[in-house]
Amino acid sequence: MLYSKIEGEGKPFVIMHGFLGMSDNWKTLAGQYVEAGFQVHLLDLRNHGRSFHSDEWSYEAMVQDVYEYCQANHLTRIDILGHSMGGKVAMLFATTHPEIVDKLIVADIGPRFYKQHHQEILAGLNAVDFSVKPSRNDVEEILSQYVPDFGTRQFLLKNLYWKEPGQLAFRFYLNAFNNNLDAIGKPLPDDLVFNNPTLFIRGGNSGYIQDSDLDAIRKHFPNLKLETIPNAGHWLHAENPKMFFELTTEFLKE
């Protein structure tokens, strides 16, 4: 069963992080959704955060995990939000289990194929040798040779934890990503459609959702609303959490 943090009372609202992220990335926004009257379910997807590790890693497997989570927690009608990889999971979940989903929110990802572009990040993560018991500073120094952006490094370093005294490790299951790297870019199957209200939010400085993608998005999600957060990149919810919260809660309460 997936690890989750459940807070609040009200309509169940399931939130899913992106690649190499975890539920903790959404902790602050989750508190605001609780105050707005939702029961928030922050999930760690398989091979991420505190959830289980598996050599099988695909969108179909992640969707099955979320379905089993909903069944186990008696969630029969939910709203669902996913960012990046989590957005792909949310899209596939909503289109294959529309009887469970009332409203869908997708943050800065489309249903199309995305060419693999995480090679440098994965090279940096694979360059860390935990057998020599590096410190947190040592790990950051190694990553800095592959990942020059400070914000991205800090995001990755949130996955470090003390496996035992003096021994750091990553929470995610790196081998699964190394062996299934193409899985993350796969498109939503052509024939899948979700007719309920759907909100796509993109960052104005992000290239993940182009204007040229809109016809394809609308084919899968005909009841589409698109919003853009100006001057925000791919981590739009972290760069402008105020606007992200306002857009999403307005949509959920319509």
Automatic annotation (TrEMBL):
Gene3D superfamilies: alpha/beta hydrolase. One of its GO terms (molecular function) is hydrolase activity. The keyword Electron transport does not apply. Residues 11-109, 161-241 form the AB hydrolase-1 domain. Keywords: Hydrolase. InterPro entries: AB_hydrolase_1, AB_hydrolase_fold. Pfam families: Abhydrolase_1 (PF00561). The keyword GTP-binding does not apply. It comes from the Bacteria. This is Pimeloyl-ACP methyl ester carboxylesterase. The lineage of its organism: Bacteria, Pseudomonadati, Bacteroidota, Flavobacteriia, Flavobacteriales.
